[in-house]
Structure formats: C-alpha cells, structure tokens
Amino acid sequence: MGLLDNFEKGLERVVNGAFAKTFRSGLQPVEITAALKREIDTKAAVVSRDRVLVPNRFTVRMSAADHQRMTALGPALIDELVDLVQKHAASQHFQFAGGIQIDLHADPALSEGLVQIDSHNVKGRVAWTPVLDVAGRRHPILKGRTVIGRGSEADLTLDDSGASRRHAEVQWDGQRARVRDLGSTNGTELDGSPVKDSVLEPDSVITIGRSRIVFRVLAQADPTDTAVNRRAGSPRDGYPGAGR
C-alpha cells in the first residue's frame, strides 16, 4: 500500500458522509491529503538506519472561500487528518520530533481549489487525546468516565433503539482506557465479541445496538509545552497506555 493510501480512504469516507454537501465545489479534503503526501515524501529525512524523521507541524494554505468551508466543520476534519497522518507514519516506520499539528490558513494569493503545504520539524511534547468516533463525528473523552446510552443523562447520546439509557461507559485515566458494560439489555461488543469490562486499544470498535463507535487516540502537539529542548514522545511508539 502506497504512502498515505489510508489517508485518502479515510477522508473518502468522510466526504461521502457528513461533509459531502459542503464540498460539492472548490478544494476537496482528498486534495489536502495528496498535498500532505507530497510534503511528507519530500521532507522525509534518514537520520540513521532505523530512524526516518518527517515533519510534524503542517500549515495548509488555501483560498479564502475554501478556508471558510473547511473551518465551518469545526475540529472534526483536523482530527481526521491528524489521526490518519499518525497511522500512516507508524505503518511506514516514520517518526516525528513531537506531536502532530495541522493548521488551516486562508491565503489571498491562492485561487479556489488550490492548496499549498508548509511544514516543519518541531521538537516538543505529545498530548495523547482520546476520542470516540460515531458516524463521522468526534466526541472527546474527558478524564474520568464517559457514559454512552440512549438517555438524556448519558454523556454521549445515541439515537439507537438497541441502546439502553445508560448502556456502557469508557474510562480514561490520562494514559489508559477501558470499556465497561453497565448492565445493558442487549449487551456491548468490542471488536465483534461480547464484552463486560476490557482494556481499549486504539482503533477498537465498540458496538451498541446498530451504533459503531471507534476509540481513537490522537498524537497532537501539547499546547502547554514551551520547552523546545524537551525530549519528545514519538507517535510511532504508541500512546503510553497501549497494551497495558
């Protein structure tokens, strides 16, 4: 599989889903991925036999009209881009100097439909950000527990008759995640198997009724980190709680 093929497949799913009406003309998300692909290809630097360093900070420049359409989506598109960059870098054995950051900027010099990428290697701390992906929408997980269910008292509400009012919960302690069924009527599945209480690995799929919920951990740049000489964690190695 070529560089960033997963990127294009992931965003094709997004374009065909919640974002489809927004991108009938002008710049397409898949064109951003192609531009990021070229940038990563060009900037990949072999540091040693087992270390290939690629940029971790990207500025995506586009016309004002395209920028308005993209930013109207909120953080969902950026999260998708960060997630897919992270996954592909791991599959290609690339490494980052710090967390991934992707910024969208309006450039009056660019015509509608055009995109340009500026990138840099910035050393810094990684902020591991857990999210639940439901039907193309990202829901951040707060430290503690996030209750999922059909009832209004749930933190993440599902419009699904197969879900109980308080169906299951995802626990996050800042490093590790777990899923626990809350005595639901129809039960909870994890990666296709019934589950009562289990560790969550990145890209695990929780099934509740007809709803498919994907657990992801995004390797984002830590906005509180100002120490440029601090040794950075690498998204290649996985988030701290993986496999525990």
From TrEMBL:
Keywords: Phosphoprotein. This is FHA domain-containing protein. Pfam families: FHA, FhaA_N. InterPro entries: Cell_Proc_Reg/RNA_Proc (IPR050923), FHA_dom (IPR000253), FhaA_N (IPR022128), FhaA_N_sf (IPR042287), SMAD_FHA_dom_sf (IPR008984). Residues 146-195 form the FHA domain.
